[in-house]
Amino acid sequence: MRKPLSGFMEETYKMKKIVIKFGGSNLKTKEDVTRIIRVISHYQTEVVIVVSALYGVTDILTKTIEDVPRAQEAVGHIKTSLMEMHRRIVTWYIDDRDYNKSVIKKIKERIDKLEHYLLGVHYLGETPDFVRDVVLSYGERLSSLLLTAILNYKGIACEEVLPEQLGLLTNGEYGNAVVDFAAAEKNLQEHLSAPKRFIVPGFYGISPGSRVTLLGRGGSDYSAAAIGRCIDAASVDLWKDVDGFMSADPRIVDKAVSIKSLTYREAAELSYFGAQILHPRTFGPLLDKQIPLRLFNIERVAPAAKPTPPLRGTPPLEGTSR
Ligand code: ASP
Ligand code: MG
User: Fold this and answer.
1) What is the DSSP string of 74-121?
2) Which of 220, 241, 271 to mutate to test the pocket of ligand 1 (most atoms within 8 A of CB)?
């Protein structure tokens, strides 16, 4: 799967962007954000960054949406915990008082919008599908806001852009939509071609009727692949906290080793049959355009202090294999 990149589009490569994705397991501890900053500053090519929710947040939202039709206090509880989780990270990284305050304010505003939906659900006494999808998209909406603020503060200029602003159109199926590439491609090319570093919340797209539609649990891998395909990215790089695909489940087989490269088909099969590393639909969008998908273990990222040579078409860092 990590297609060898030697001689890989040396010339055109420079003009293409790379899509990089960070998952919830990369958004847990204080060190995680430091690592993300380190990873991003290694890339010499323009990147589009896709993020999933902070670790555990989608689960909390799922639980809340189950409780809230009966129990209004669930709204207050989730507001408090989301505020705390995000505030803590802001405070770790942003020590300027005014900037800190303005970021917390934006996060609070976003959480207030979520509150409106949740109260709506409570008063209705049930959860329509379209509201459920909006509510669950809030994990990603919050993490992308948070990461954008921290990166800008750290001098890594970037701009948040939401799937509804991009026109990331889907087939409209709630909970488990697929991207409508014929409809989305032009929109994304238009929006993402500017020479900027963009941050996009993963996990959802927009239906033809402008509703939020989730791309299935673990769907931000698929978001990254879909965006990569729409903009014909040089590669789609998924940053995880594990060593890529293994020859067997390492919890069961002692001598499992990581696999250096796989065809799209092999990787898709492994994903369908239980390798839990990737959303199984991640490969489809990449296949037609033969866009390489690369998996990296964020725990192996080289320290930023080490000067890195320009990348010029080679993988940004040593990959996942040992
Ligand atoms: N946050 C979503 C989930 O947990 C999407 C993702 O993590 O990729 O399913
Ligand atoms: Mg997640």
Assistant:
1) HHHHHHHHHHHHHHHHHHHH---HHHHHHHHHHHHHHHHHHHHHHHHH
2) 220
